[in-house]
Design goal:
Strand content: under 5%
Helix content: over 70%
Largest sheet: none
Number of strands: 0
Number of helices: 6
Order of helices and strands: HHHHHH
Shape: rod-shaped
């Protein structure tokens, strides 16, 4: 099996094609997948909040239409459950930041794809660079995006009390 890189000082670096087919593709797929998962969770929680919030006052009003008795006593739990779902789904989204994560992962995936296109077209920051310099700059830009995401994740997602303990 032939290796694209060697440990000897004069060996050539791995090709950009190998980087694109390996790490770049894996990372882009990861960010796409995480964006999709968080988008789905965000939209599901927003739908649950909207529907249960909308149905809660209707369920309360319906209680006045039901004659007193056992059924009305059991039915009185319905508005409680609906309002609990509304508050719980809203708070769940606030806790897990699905919307913010969706935006973050989508942004990184789009920036990775954007750098790939700029590199392949030799446009923007890659314009006028020779093959080797453009390749190094491309890898540096992509790795910077990937690394920056990890730092931003910990700043945004770690519990504020634990964040203070980690910083000290």
């Amino acid at each position: 099996m032939e290796s694209t890189a060697s440990s000897s000082p004069g060996a050539s670096a791995p090709s950009v094609a190998a980087y694109l087919d390996g790490r770049w593709r894996d990372q882009c797929a990861y960010f796409e997948r995480k964006a999709s998962i968080n988008q789905s969770r965000y939209l599901d929680s927003r739908r649950a909040t909207l529907i249960s919030s909308w149905l809660t006052p209707i369920a309360i009003f319906a209680m006045f239409l039901i004659p007193a008795g056992d059924f009305r006593d059991y039915y009185s739990v319905v508005p409680l459950l609906l309002s609990t779902i509304a508050v719980g789904s809203y708070q769940g989204e606030e806790l897990h930041n699905y919307g913010a994560q969706w935006a973050k992962f989508r942004l990184v995936a789009e920036r990775l794809k954007g750098h790939r296109e700029l590199f392949l077209q030799r446009a923007g920051v890659y314009q006028g660079l020779d093959e080797e310099k453009a390749a190094k700059h491309f890898v540096q830009q992509c790795e910077g995006l990937i690394e920056g995401t990890d730092v931003n994740y910990f700043v945004m997602m770690i519990d504020p009390l634990r964040r203070d303990q980690i910083a000290s």
